[in-house]
Amino acid sequence: MTTQTLIYIVLAGILAIFLAVFQYYKKEKGMTKLSMLFSFLRFLSIFAILVLLINPKFEQTSLSIEKPNLVVAIDNSSSVKHLKQDTQTRNLVEKLASDAKLNDKFNVNFYTFGKSFVASDSLTFNDNQTNISNAFRQLSQMYRQTTTPTILISDGNQTYGSDYQFAGSTYKQSIYPIILGDTVTYTDLKIQQLNVNKYAYLKNRFPVEAILVYNGNKTINSLFKVTSGNKTVYSKPLNFNKQNNSQVVNFTLPTNHVGVSSYRTTIVPIEHEKNTINNTKNFAVEVIDQKTKIAIVSDFLHPDLGVLKKSIEANEQRSVAFLNTNNSINQIDDYQLIILNQPNYRFKKLIEALKKDNKNYFTIIGTKTDLNFLNNIDPNFTIEITHQTESYQAELNTSYSPFIVDDINFESFPPLHSFYGQITFNLPFDTVLSKTINGISTQTPLLTTYEINGRRAGMLFGENIWQWRAQSYVNDKSFNRFDDFIGKLVQYLASNKRKTRLNVDYESFYNGSSGVIVKAEFFDKNYVFDARETLTISITNKITNENKVFPLILKNNNFQVDLSSLPPAEYSFTVKATNENISKSGSFQILEYNVEQQFLNANVTKLRQLATNSQGKSYFITKTEHLVTDLLEDNRFVSIQKSHKKTIPLIDWKYLLILIALSLGLEWFIRKYNGLI
Q1: What confidence tens digit (pLDDT) does each residue in 288-309 have?
Q2: Of 348, 419, 511, 558, which residue is least crowded by CB atoms under 10 Å?
Q3: Considering the entire predicted model, what is its pTM?
Q4: How would you class 271 by CB atoms within 10 Å of its CB: exposed for 0-12, middle for 13-18, buried for 19 or more?
Q5: How many CA atoms within 13 Å lie on the side-chain side of 447?
Q6: How far apart (Å, rounded) are the C-alpha atoms in residues 497 and 97?
Q7: Which residues have a Cβ under 8 Å from the Cβ of 371 and sit 6 or more positions away?
């Protein structure tokens, strides 16, 4: 409370006394006991009202005790069960959850991780992937401002994600790994890695590279072989010892028929080998008859050209060649799609030839594009010429119908640079992405496709798409989602297939049972996405003839079904619309592979290094008796007393209002009782 406020309160008290005494003293020509009582009640009323008008503020201080957090992150992947550590893990988690002293000192929170990271203390040990680095990344966001020692219960075997060993650089907490396993070294042979292309070409040979590893001290002999069905297509004798403990085997296999060809690689196990699951790996190759060829025509260099080539050729079914306007006209018959980068008058003969041959093409419009030339040569659209440029971000059109477009977080991508002006189409078109400025939609297309006379065309109204691919990597730590988007766009534009009301998106084969996702879109007769339709998928195992039916769930702008529960086999399927007689069929193969069963030991070295880097301490699951004591006695983890100052205005003090009401009411009642009213 300030000095000025105190002066106001004193003056208010003096004024209240003067008014109260003056009123009753003047009336009665003296002060009786009753007058003194009335004066006192009037003083209280006036003074309280004046204080309310002044409204002084008071500071209220409250104290609270904040306990440190304790995170228990538990590996819920199937490798824990494979190493026979599941029972001991459950016992340890129950012990930590029920420890009274631990819960008295810490706010204990339990999380599980595998393929995903969730808050839970229920353990199933059936996740088919492990991403430890993702667990630390999410914990670093949740506990950024607090003291949070972390118990990591894991075998340390990560199947994907960035290296968790250096998690301390982003996760500023002490980590206490509980190692699920032992340091015993077992004699083991395994196929460490298979490198093989996803696609191959008919009547050709494709390369395979196998990295084979031996863990042991003796000299042993074995045999590496590759089989297709019951037929051995390749074999090689092997010799390992303590010094020569790895070999790289390179070979090629023929492609004799179109479709998916599956193979099984095996190292014959040695005597008394503990883990023979990692002696076998399956792989498949999709044999195609021809490669889709795309030409990019440009008369100047630009980073977008290299990015488009990388993204398109991420799928080995496609190849990209660079041409200029002088050498492109005579070669257009060699390509299924022509990409025109920022065309000008030098593209005139090429565009006329494309229209004459009814060829598909994709136009990129940027700051170096001659808009007058485009308006004159193509009557399908008109671009307003303002001689001004603008930067536009992208917004996905969830109603886009020609093919399934996944939202790869377009709104986070940097803006593309282009001209400023309206675009008017003179034919039906489909908008994939719309332009936005500062988050406000302009209702103007940024990326469109359209069909005319059996020819497909697309237009991108912006340059610097290379920044999108870079941002996609920042978002996802991978280029895959952006490359898939460009791949789908190119696949659609390079094809002349008629538009259908039911589109199904799936892979020819899946490596293991993780991530077996089938997507579908359904459109009404006007080719508008119909979310009211019910889609089902009927799956038939080609080996056992077992049939299962699953519903497809509406998610974002498409229908999806997760078939990861299916065992490895070959399957045929039919996606059917319930309310209309429309269906689409196909087939895929799930290869037998469980990455979580490839491990023989815990990764003790990495877990110990993780503890050292974070100033924590590691324990084996069989020796955790000092874990709780170490946490309780560590002086770094103490409760913090916090004081909170709160400024309270007097007008919020309800008792003062009650006092005013009581004093005025009592004064009126006494006066009424004494016949003075």
Answers
A1: 877 789 999 998 999 999 999 9
A2: 348
A3: 0.61
A4: exposed
A5: 19
A6: 60
A7: 365, 383, 385, 419
